[in-house]
């Protein structure tokens, strides 16, 4: 029985097909908005919250990950877009994309399917709600902003650690197979990397739910989708004049992460540029030049002082 409604909307239905349930919810639950009606229909139709949450997470992951990769795959095939390709000399071949697709699908089914199926009981124990209506949009906007900042911090430090000796050699090296990334390569990684970096995406919302006692599963689902889109886009290999970082200077985007794949060192953060800026780990020849001139100026200043 679903916890979305106090009373089931299926009792009156002889034919509980998805279409009929959707029709019934849209007719009877007029106080809900469009997204809430769809959400409620899904849980009412499934009549099993564990399966409903598990399938929802799995499908959202597959649909939004591959759905977001598809436009990048098409753009790679259209020469018009080459002028915005960051590493112009490298266009991924069909073989590379196919190998990457197979590896990512394998990882999704082998690694990510288990946490997805155990997620609803965890949500229940933490008091993560699946009920309708959803919390106010302003509450969810604040949660998404907070999760972006916390994930970025986690990603910076975990990723920096992954570039250290054995962690790089045995785990992170797989993700660096492509020196010029493409969308699909976002989740091309060793299972240990998928788990540890994934912890930054899911772990903070869990901690937030534990500490505050109020988080809605819809808010969490949208956050995961936003993070998926961010990860795919940062691996796209394209920097357009309309790319977000041109309007929001602290947003990392593809230009930031492409340099990481190209030079192997620096630009460890995921969504924002501030960690690499503060800790002087920006990648690329320009950042290196700036770093050297800063160090030279500092040394000269020190030499003058001691004269
Ligand atoms: Zn790396
Ligand atoms: Zn990467």
From TrEMBL:
Q: Does the keyword Transmembrane helix apply?
A: yes
Any keyword Membrane? yes
Name the Pfam families for this protein.
FA_hydroxylase
Location within or outside the cell: Membrane
- TM annotation in the entry: none
Any idea which UniProt keywords this protein has?
A: Membrane, Transmembrane, Transmembrane helix
Annotated Fatty acid hydroxylase domain residues: 144-281
Compositionally biased, Basic and acidic residues: which spans?
285-307
Residues of the region (Disordered) are 284-307
Gene Ontology biological-process entries: lipid biosynthetic process
Any one GO MF annotation of this record: oxidoreductase activity
Q: Which InterPro entries match?
A: Fatty_acid_hydroxylase (IPR006694), Sterol_Desaturase_Related (IPR050307)
Gene Ontology cellular component annotations, sorted alphabetically = membrane
Name-wise, this protein is Fatty acid hydroxylase domain-containing protein
């Amino acid at each position: 029985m679903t916890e979305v409604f106090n009373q089931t909307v299926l009792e009156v239905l002889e034919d509980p097909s998805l279409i009929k349930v959707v029709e019934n919810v849209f007719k009877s639950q007029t106080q809900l908005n469009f997204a809430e009606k769809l959400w409620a229909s899904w849980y009412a139709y499934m009549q099993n919250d564990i399966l409903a949450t598990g399938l929802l997470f799995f499908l959202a992951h597959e649909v939004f990950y591959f759905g977001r990769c598809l436009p990048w795959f098409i753009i790679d095939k259209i020469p018009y877009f080459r002028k915005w390709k960051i590493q112009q000399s490298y266009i991924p071949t069909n073989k590379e994309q196919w190998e990457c697709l197979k590896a990512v699908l394998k990882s999704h089914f082998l690694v990510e399917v288990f946490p997805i199926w155990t997620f609803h009981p965890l949500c229940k124990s933490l008091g993560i709600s699946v009920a309708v209506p959803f919390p106010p949009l302003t509450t969810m906007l604040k949660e998404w902003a907070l999760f972006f900042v916390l994930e970025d911090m986690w990603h910076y430090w975990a990723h920096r650690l992954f570039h250290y000796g054995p962690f790089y050699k045995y785990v992170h090296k797989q993700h660096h197979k492509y020196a010029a990334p493409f969308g699909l390569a976002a989740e091309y990684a060793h299972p240990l990397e998928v788990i540890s970096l994934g912890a930054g995406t899911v772990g903070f919302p869990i901690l937030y739910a534990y500490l505050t006692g109020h988080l809605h599963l819809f808010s969490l689902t949208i956050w995961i989708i936003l993070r998926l889109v961010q990860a795919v886009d940062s691996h796209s290999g394209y920097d357009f004049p309309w790319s977000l970082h041109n309007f929001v200077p602290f947003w990392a985007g593809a230009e930031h992460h492409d340099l990481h794949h190209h030079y192997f060192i620096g630009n460890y953060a995921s969504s924002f540029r501030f960690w690499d800026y503060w800790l002087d780990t920006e990648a690329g020849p320009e950042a290196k030049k700036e770093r050297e001139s800063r160090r030279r100026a500092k040394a000269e200043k020190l030499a003058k002082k001691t004269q």
